[in-house]
Amino acid sequence: MVGLNKCLDTYALIEIAKGNIKFKQYTKLNFVTTDLNLAEFYNVTLREEGLENANLWFKKLEPYSVPVDKLILIEAVIFRRKNIKKNISFFDAVGYIFSIKNGYAFVTGDKEFENLQNVEFIKK
Q: Is 1 inside any structural domain?
């Protein structure tokens, strides 16, 4: 995937699915999300909107989903522990570390990431 420069976290995926105009621009870009963020997104969609909608969105987003190396998972655990007071989810920690390691901007609306480097923060 040439020209990748954005990694969308679960928050961004949820906002896209809800039709939030502030996140619509990302559907026209060449983006990526991690397998873990896609799984978390699937869980939220399944819980809030049911199996059919969760499967629909999974099919739409699965081509943009990429696996995460075990070393990134370990770095995400360390990052999360260092930032324990921010209450960052493991899924989002993985997405953030993955973004840094691959030179992507981490796109989120999670307030825990608002002032971190390498973050494209979008308020709801």
A: no
